[in-house]
Design a protein that fits this description.
By secondary structure, the chain is mainly alpha-helical. It is built from two helices and no strands.
Length: 57
């Protein structure tokens, strides 16, 4: 019975899970931001390339 009482009071596993969830949420945020920024930069460079191509003799 003492084993179950010690296991119930041990919070190190819960802390590790919380850190894992925080890391996962940060990762999702970074991926979303990089995707949005990547699309914007891609469109910008394609526009510049198109302008240069149209203005070349």
């Amino acid at each position: 019975m003492k084993i179950f009482a010690r296991f119930a009071q041990d919070e190190s596993g819960a802390t590790a899970i919380e850190y894992g969830l925080i890391a996962a949420l940060i990762s999702v945020g970074i991926i979303l931001a990089a995707t949005a920024l990547g699309d914007s930069l891609g469109n910008l460079f394609n526009g510049i390339a198109g302008t240069l191509t149209n203005n070349m003799p």
